[in-house]
Each structure stands twice: as structure tokens, then as C-alpha cells.
Amino acid sequence: QDLQEVVRKQLFDHVCSHREQHLREEREHQEAKASRHKERWNAGTKRAEMVRECLALFLEMQKYQRTLLHRQRALHMFYNAHLKAHGGGLSKEEIAAHLAALLP
User: Fold this and answer.
1) Mean pLDDT score across all residues of the chain
2) Per the record, where are the segments of Basic and acidic residues compositional bias (predicted)?
3) What is each CA distance from 38 to 41, 97, 100, in whole angstroms?
4) Fewest beta carbons less than 10 Å away: which of 34, 41, 103, 104?
5) DSSP codes, 35-69
């Protein structure tokens, strides 16, 4: 009777520990999935923002594309401003001032 009770208790503990492990693994899997989704979402959002900023900057530059010289200068400025914006961390105000100075 006692032996049977001990065996039953051990089996119960064994099954419970398996269950806990399975639940923990499932939770970790879900957390990892959510984290990967969040990373992809954030990366996608950043990319979309960058594209929008570039497009806005490019459209702004088109005002200065009346002549070939202006067009070349505008494209050069667009490239430099974009590099500085995403490399050196210039603010939008600094980019605008930079553009205004170079393209009056």
C-alpha cells in the first residue's frame, strides 16, 4: 500500500514536471515569436519612415531642378543630406538649413 502510494506520488511529480517544462517551453516559444514579430515590425516602420523622409526631401529638391546645374546640385544635396540624416544624425531643421544655404 505504501509502496503503491510512493510510486503514484513519483509518477504524479514526474508528469507535473513534464507539464511545467512543456508550458515553459511553449511560453518561451511564444515570447520569442512575439519578439521577432516586433523586431520585424520596427524594422519595417523605420524603413517606411526613411523612404517617406527621402521622398519628401526629394520632392522638396524638385523645386530647385529648373536648370541642369540646379538638378545636379539638387541630387548631390539630396544624397549628402540623406547620408548625414541617417549617418550623422542631423535633425530635419539642420537638413532644411543646410539645403537653404546651398540651394538659395
Assistant:
1) 76
2) 20-34
3) 5, 35, 38
4) 104
5) HHHHHHHHHHHHHHHHHHHHHHHHHHHHTT-SSHH
Instruction: Give the up-direction half-sphere exposure of residue 42: CA atoms within 13 A in the CB hemisphere.
Output: 6
DSSP 86: I
Could you tell me the residue range of the domain that residue 69 belongs to?
2-102
Report the predicted TM-score, pTM, of the whole model to 2 decimal places: 0.38
Give the torsion sign (CA, 73, 78, 84, 87): negative
The candidate with the shortest Cα–Cα distance to 32, out of 7, 40, 94, is 40
pLDDT, tens digit (0-9, with 9 covering 90-100), for 8-19: 888 888 878 888
DSSP letter string over 20-39? HHHHHHHHHHHHHHHHHHHH
